[in-house]
Each structure stands twice: as C-alpha cells, then as structure tokens.
Amino acid sequence: MKILCIVDPLERLGLAGDTSYALMLEAATRGWDVWTCQIEHLGLTGADAVADACQTSVVLAETPAGAFRLGARQPTRLADFDAVLMRKDPPVDVSYLHATWILDHARGKTLLVNDPRGLRELNEHLAVLRFPALTPATIVTRSADRLRQFQAEQGGAIVVKPVDGYGGLGIFVVRDGDPNASSIIETSIGAGTRWTLAQRYLPAAVDGDKRIILVDGEPVGAVLRVPGNAEARGNLHVGGRAVRSELDARDREIIAAVAPMMRANGQILVGLDVIGGMLTEINITSPTGVQHVSRLEQRNVAAPILDAFARLAATAKA
Ligand SMILES: Nc1ncnc2c1ncn2[C@@H]1O[C@H](COP(=O)(O)OP(=O)(O)O)[C@@H](O)[C@H]1O
Ligand SMILES: [Mg+2]
To answer: Which of 24, 191, 229, 241 has the most neighbouring CB atoms within 10 Å?
Structure first.
C-alpha cells in the first residue's frame, strides 16, 4: 500500500495523542509507503488531483524531529496512491472546502478517507439532528430571544456551540441565574451574524463524553473523556482525562442508526460523541482517540483501521 496523509505541519503534531501519527506509524511498521503533505500542497493538473508531497519515514519517537524524516518534495498524482487520508484538523473553512473540491477529482482513482463530498455534506454538529430520537433537544438560531426561550423550556440549563466549532472551542454552559448568560448568548450569535446551536444540558457530561471510533461503520474502540476540575468540556485538547470504556446497548443502537449514513457518504473513519446515551457530535474531519484506546486497552487500534483501509482500497478504483 502507498498512502498519502494530508496533515497539519508535522512539527506541530502532539505525538503522544495524535491519531494521524498512530496511523502513519502503523502503516510504516507494515512496510507501507507513506507520503505526507499539507493542504496547501494540493492542486489540479487538468482534471487530475495532484500534490507536492514528501515520502516520509515514520518511527516511534517522542518528538516530530525524531519521528519523521522527509524525502524531497515531489509532484505526485493522487491516483498513484492506494489511499489518501485527509487528516487536516478543522476548522472547516473556505480553504478546507476548496481542498475538498480538489479531492473530488481523485474519487474513483484512490480510496478517500474521508470522502470529500461527505465532508462537505455533513456538518459535525448538525448531522446528529438527522437522528432526533438519539439526540438531546436542540435548536439552531441567530436569535438571542429564541435562545433565551429555549433555555427556559429546557429547565434553565443549555449548552451553546458555534456550528463550525471543534475541540471544545466556543462551547458554553448557560444556566439560569448566570449573570453572564445574556452576554454569552450575544457573543455566541455575534449580534445575529452567526448561527449558534443550543442543546439541552446533559448532566451526564460530568461523568464523561464517550468517543466511539467507527471504521467503515464498525466500532473499533471507545474511550470516555472526563472533564477536568472546574471544566464543562470533556475534550482531550482542553484537559479531558481518557478513561477506559466499553460499548453498551445504547451505543450499539446509535451505531446501528448512524453507520448506514456514514457508509452512504463515504465516511470511513468517524468518531461519535455520546453523552449520557445521547449522540451529540459526529466527527468526520480528523477524528481522534486511537492512541488513547490503544494505551488503555493495551491493543493496537490502528491495526484494524489499516486493515479496513487495505480492504476498501482494493475496490476503490472505479
Ligand atoms: N448537550 C450537552 N450537555 C452537556 N455537555 C455538553 C453537551 N454538548 C457538549 N458538551 C460538552 O462539550 C464538549 C464538546 O462538545 P461537542 O459537541 O463534542 O463539540 P466539539 O466539536 O467542540 O468537540 C463535550 O465533550 C462535553 O463535555
Ligand atoms: Mg466533540
């Protein structure tokens, strides 16, 4: 297998927890030919998606300087790779969208993880609303009045999130009697210039936010992210603690409901976020958690993921 990983600059990866690193390391260990580039190295030559990419040797190390050795940057065709991993971290901004249009030109010529059309089609926070029975009460609005009314309807505690947020960014818990409530709401909607998603506050969030890693619709691991002291968010990037976790019957119900939509949209590597048995986010842009599950369960979660890539790559070329 020859793979291209589109990543953020390698020197910025936090190797101790980074899922892209875990996938690249497992690929290199298998003797796969690993190449890397950043989003800005993508382009089109006529109809052909191309990248100025570097062949990359990947070894186990603590720092990017020790882990990666890059060959000379060379023009490549995405069609010459068996799989292309779009692992650029969010935000999904205009540049990200443009990259998906370039990646469209590689469809049917390589395995795209994840499919760029699905990356455009599905918003990580809004896609859960396609499963209302599995999702807490939610509204999306630019209206401060609607947000206040929703807060009252939900018994006084809600969570507000920017539609395009990630990694816990811009997430606030708004409670009755909070002297900052109006200011938080106004800031969140940017004086009516931004949509905000407001959700019933799930008290189970203090016990943790379960990340379920799906590959081609099948679960390969789960990890509970427990918020730190005086912190509402469980995200690992803001200090959430990774705790071993199993799948329960409700998780399996959620997976069974969501997997067909993921497959239909070509979303191969997906992270579901579940709080108190409620689906709160479907992570598709660059889902993480692989190293945490591997460490907690003493097994290599990257292995079944790469097995799936190899299996799917065999039929990806039209
Ligand atoms: N409805 C909710 N009730 C309580 N806490 C929530 C809710 N939604 C999100 N959170 C908290 O915010 C964190 C991030 O939320 P999430 O929707 O997954 O967005 P992000 O894209 O930033 O990860 C979660 O880990 C959880 O701690
Ligand atoms: Mg999340």
So the answer is: 24
